[in-house]
Amino acid sequence: MVDELVLLLHALLVRHRALSIENSQLMEQLRLLVCERASLLRQVRPPSCPVPFPETFNGESSRLPEFIVQTASYMLVNENRFCNDAMKVAFLISLLTGEAEEWVVPYIEMDSPILGDYRAFLDEMKQCFGWDDDGDDDDDYEDDTSPDFHGALKIFQCFPYQGIA
């Protein structure tokens, strides 16, 4: 009986050694696959956004045109993230601070329909924070010194974002 136990123990040790070697080989294969996966992911990941993340807006009237152009540019090159007006308005709201943030709170509290209408939300911002939009004519470019949101959008529409190779 002792001889049988010794033989069984020897067989178990041999089997244990074989499994340990196989386990080591599998671990090495796994390590190589993880490295290969990381290399492949680096090759297929989309490029970083060519437009920087917009700065926050605190209600300073002189910064409103810049804020709107920055956010519109960012949303344009990331259009898959901003698929509807509610997402666009929510993005703008997320960047509001100070007086601008206080201004938007009543709209949120009463669940205003303006929160789902990007153009109407921009018009309200312009009215509240002093962007004088006298002629809303998109084809009027007489004053090249004033920031023109619609003109910026026209430029972006002429050169749609195709990604970076």
Automatic annotation (TrEMBL):
It comes from the Eukaryota. One of its GO terms (cellular component) is nucleolus. It holds the Pfam family DUF4939. GO terms for biological process: cellular response to lipopolysaccharide; cellular response to muramyl dipeptide. Residues 28-138 form the DUF4939 domain. This is LDOC1 regulator of NFKB signaling.
